[in-house]
Amino acid sequence: MPVQLLPASAAAFAPRASSVNVVLGSKVEPWLTQTLKRINRIKRPLNSVPQHQRCLTETLSSSNAIWTLASLMLSKAPETELRKDSNPLVEALFNYQVIHLEAYIVHVDMVLRNEVAYKLTPDTIESLIEYHKDIHCVNAKANTYDWSEKDQQCKKLHEDFVQAINKFVFRTHVSALEGLEEDGAGELLSGKSDEVKTNVMALFKPLLPPPPRIIDVVRQPPLLPSSPAAQSMWTQAPTPVSLPAPVESWRVLPSSPSVASTSADSGNSSIWANIGMSEVQIPSPPPAFSQPYSSAGLFYGSPVVTSPIPHLPLPSMLAPQCGVSVGYNSFGWDRYQEYTTTM
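Above: the chain sequence. Below: its structure as tokens.
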């Protein structure tokens, strides 16, 4: 990267030098000769490089050699104090101001970098500093939330701007000297003013609040069997669970009356045998069962609660009374021979 050759007058807070540093090459460009002849009221000889250098140095070192780099339209007051009007022209007149970015030339190099360096005038720097303090910082504070170090941060933001605007030096190609006018004044051509606006407005930094703090979430480590807390948990006696006693399948009554009972108790069969046909009373209609028979009792689980089952006659209890003497209405099976002969 080439060394940036700038005089001491281009440093921050440095006063304007009495003479501009001008460096020309061994050959002078024709456009520079024509420009110097156009701005000089008194005809001066321009036949050599030293004559061009002397004429350009004296012209740019004049106190009137002030260049207008660009013009900025900025607000006159903070946003909360701006005037509201239905006419946009009235709002523009009362709420906005134009600040001209005026500068003077501190360096001309036509040998190494072919550039011209400009530095803002003290009046321009003072106007920008005042705008930054009274308007920009006020708007920045109003548009951000409050935190403990907000005032200190805003103060630091303004101090940084003061340093940056005093260090600001705009460099452009030496062809900008074609806009040179009488008394060394001038104006940037070829759209260079937009570049100056962009560079100056980039110095107005926003007020950035601090980033949110990251809160460390303290998570409890998992309990291992070896830890004391885990040992107390694992050593607790489990709650006893009462399980119903298993029911033997041969003691379960059959679900259908047509199946004979398999109970080993002979007393039960005698009870069924002594009950006569007339002693059995079947309700009409038969009561509905609250819950059908379930075989869930064969397995481990909660006991099944059922309603009492009414006593129904089984075929075994009717065996002593059933025979050929039992008839249907007047027809008897014991007189079967009599009916067959008469027929």
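The chain has a mean pLDDT of 77.
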